[in-house]
Amino acid sequence: MAVYPHGDANRYRHGRCRCRRCRAANTREMNLYRLAVATGVHRRDVDAEPVRQHVAKLQAAGLGVQRIAELAGVGYDTVRRLLYGKPSEGTAPTKKMRPETASKLLAVRFGLLPSEGWVPGVGTRRRVQALSAMGWPLPLVAARCGLSPDTVQRLTRAPDDGRVDASTARKVADLYRRLWCLDPASEGVPAPTVARLRSIAAGKGWVTPIGWGDIDDPDATPDTDAEQIEPRRYALWEDSEELIRGQGLTIAVAAHRLGVTASKLRKERWLVESEIAQQAGEAS
Question: Rounded to the nearest 10 degrees, how much is the dihedral formed by the CA atoms of 140, 146, 150, 155?
Answer without folding.
Answer: -90
